Fold these 2 entries.
Entry 1:
Amino acid sequence: MFELFIAMIKEEWRIHSTMFGSISFALFPILIFWIAFMGSFLLPLMRQALPSGELSIVLHANYLMLGFMVGAFGLLGSEVMNRRFGQASLLAYAARSLPLSERFIFANFVIKDTLYYFVLWVLPLALGFLLASPFIGVPITLPLLLSLTLTLAFLSGLCLVFFLSSLYSRSKPALAAVLVFLALAAGAIALVTHENPAQLFPPVMLFNAFSWANLLQCCATIVILFTVSIWLFTPETADSTKHYHDMLMPLAKKLSFFPTPPLTAKDIIDMYRSGGMVGQTLFSFVIPLVVIWFFLSLLNGYLPTYGVLLEFALVTGVIASTMYTWLTMFDTFGAYACLPVSVRTVIKSKIASFTVLQIIPAVFVALAALLSGQALYLLPAVVLTLSVSFYSLGVTVWLTGLSPSVMVYSVKVMVTYLVLVGVVLLALSAVAFSSPFAALGAVVLFIPAIFFARLGFAKWEAREQPGF
Amino acid sequence: MSEHVIAATGLTKKYGDLVAVNGVSLSVEKGALYGLLGPNGSGKSTMIKMLTGQIRPTAGTATVLGVDVQQDPVGVRERVGIIPEQETPPSFLTAHEYLQLVGAIRKIPDIEERAAWWFDFMDFGDKKDVLCKDLSRGTRQKLMFAQAFVHQPALALIDEPLINFDPIMQHQVKDYLAEYTKKGNTIFLSTHILEVAEEICSDFVILHKGNILHTGTVASLDAEHRHLDDFFLELMQRTRNV
């Protein structure tokens, strides 16, 4: 039965390598390694601003976030086969004709994704830091321990999202109950111990005070989450006789101010009927950002009063831009092959749908401003989020067209994205820290956003689409 | 003087070293039911994709209904109906909503009446309000057939349109296609089911490994008392021997 797992790994590799060539794709983990290696040399500088304890928490938060993102991409319970594979003849779908249980195929799929993305993202980062450690005066045991705890943080995020999404596919009230319980528990811990709950994240605790008991506790949590998730997984049981009311034209009428209302309406219906509107918003947006908020709030003592909120607004903007991926994961251009629709039109409709979805980050950041008692900075925070989101979208459209989730693994695409978005984030951080209301100037980002989107229209119109 | 609705000259498509279509030139007259025949991998689907502007030729030119497919691929798709190689209606729209979407994109004012006619003709029953992803392959194929003809195009390029239909629906659709061409419309039909081609096509071209092996009419075969499948097999045998 190991053959299925190996075949899935090969398949995943070929999906990416056929897009960019084996060598180009193989360079991706090397790029991550290089970024980590070079980035490590900045640590001594960063330590002057932040104590290393807080720095390690930020690192763990990043890995936890990575786990969330990887987990949320494919693992949305009973929808996964359709979501990720549709009618495609990929192994997770095709293997259903073999004498294997759906649960077994799904478990293989999850383990494959875990291992694959671990090698692609986590391992190179850890190795980069490990190899840089002798040069920055850090004892070798520290990066080794950090590699272990960062890996555990990544797996925690992955398994937690996997668990929550499996629960979601079984019972939405049960999911709500678990989330409420977790929120109450975090609140109670904060009240009783007067500590930020992020400090009690098991991998962080393990990093701060290594013990075999702590390690065992960490691993046990991950294994239990994973096992319960597999146990909760339900093979697709969609009722094929279910009938639906017409939504397309009524919705298109409401969206008539967009350039292609029927296509925008279709995107929104895709999200709604697939469960993505709730599932993606929860697992790819709200939960990761709530966790990020807790971690960022640890920096309160080192930033201006409004600093955490505005940093949070920037991060939310970047994450909000990934909503474009939610919209493009349902159909390739092949679905429009028989219609008189250009690539430019499809991308424009996705941008319109993206604009509708931006109400989510706008409301989310506004709530964060209100709940954190910084209503005064609500406007700069929302402007920052939306400006960064649309700017990052413009860059994404230019670089990846209608295939953002695949093209991101091209080294050239990744480096260009990191440079174009990273530079803007750094500049905006500096501006926002110097004067929060200067952050309102971020609206100028809409100009390069439109410029990049237009470049993208011309670029992708001139290329043959993979869906064909 | 005959009117050509499709005129292709030296159409070529290469994928790296693989030549999928190699310098194919053909012309299709208005009102023909033109069969594009050939074994699997002969380049039939690639031809249809090039003629409908879905992929760009590596070399050669083509006009469809007078529109250059490279200059204005969307213009070509506006004028023709297409059934693609794989039935791919959007997963989370119902069959009815899909036809509404097609109607909105193609700007068909009476789409509701037309959709109702097609659902009745294709015997959809209560499936029109079911999500496309939950439809059977045959029903999805019916839907793709309906979307290709709902705007009554002067030319339809259809790739294996009958393959998932039951015998009753096959019969019904073959009659529809024959009637459609009698009204002066043209059908460009790609298939490897030779019985179907012989039954309904007026003209045909046989492709093999991206090259044209033979161009002819079913009437000329009839005159020689030959069946299309025998002729096709002989041709393939000769090609192998060569």
Note: Residues 1-236 of chain A form one domain.
Entry 2:
Amino acid sequence: MTDPLLETDEFDPAEETESSAESARRQPRTRYQLKDDTGFDEVPKKYRRFYRRWQGKGDSLAPNEVICPVCKVVIRSTRDLRPGDRVYCMPCFSRLTVIAGESGGLEARVEY
Amino acid sequence: MSVDGIEIHARDHDGFLREVHSFEFWFQSVEGYLADHPYGVDPKAPVPDLEEPERDALIATLSTYCVGEVAALDGSSGMIGFAPNRHSKIFLATQVVDEARHLEVMLHRLSELGVEDAEAGFEARANPNLLAFRGRLMEFVEAKDWEASIFAQNVILESMEFAAFHSHMQSADPRTAEMLAGVLKDERRHMGFGENDLGRHLEQSPHARTRLREIKKELDALVLATFEDSQRALGTPASERTAVGKLYLESVARLGFAK
């Protein structure tokens, strides 16, 4: 389980044998400023910036977003998400782990 | 815990569960979408004039929804007495309030549609399959059977309602759609509570799956037939009706009840 709050190590060029996936995982995280401007109103005010509604066709997920498989809300993080990260879906009380989806994008799996 | 400047997702699971199952969390959540919305709608929103066939179909569908809401109101209030822990009791208390509100807003919409004494007649207009489902749910509740009650109500009924209301909103008149949107936001909590509570329970008691699988077989037919009928009455094309059951099927598959 990767804690999104934890700093990742800087890339070490001496580690020549690591795979590109491992290398990507070790890159510093991109930080995102979450503004409470998504119109999401289903959780207490202080948490609203962490969620938004999926807008359907034409919408896409940013690197810091993943869809909750239980209630289909878009969950947002202050950092880019990577497989192994844990996220919470407050609108439906779910704890999720970010995984690499079959389509190549990030998905979330419920952890009861 | 303040979230200013920190990542919500770094919280510990126990703390997260303690907060989302609290009355305080519920109150601050519903305040966001129910404040200044009497009967779940903007008071300035006009009451649309519907053609008779559309009006009749809406009356029949809302009557069926009312039976679902009464089932969940009676079910969740009864379950408080034998819920296994304080979190569940408090959550169910908030669900009781939600279900009572849903029933009230739907009866109000029926009266706006010209139905006299909406409360007296909704069962007669409702789908018989859902009436049978309600009877079975209440048997589980009366037997104080937590596993079966939470599965029937918060997994099967709530996820089917969530999917049906979401689908109905796409074609409903604006006033009905706004009313349903508010109900849908509550349903997210109800079905999420059900799946997560049962998921944790099944991890501790995997043998319970065998019995729940039999219950699912029995109740699937009643719930799926109810919503198939409602979708047909609302004019949803056959090709889109299966999508309504998809969310429910995904939920039960995650819990290990795939066909």
Note: Chain B has ten helices and no strands.
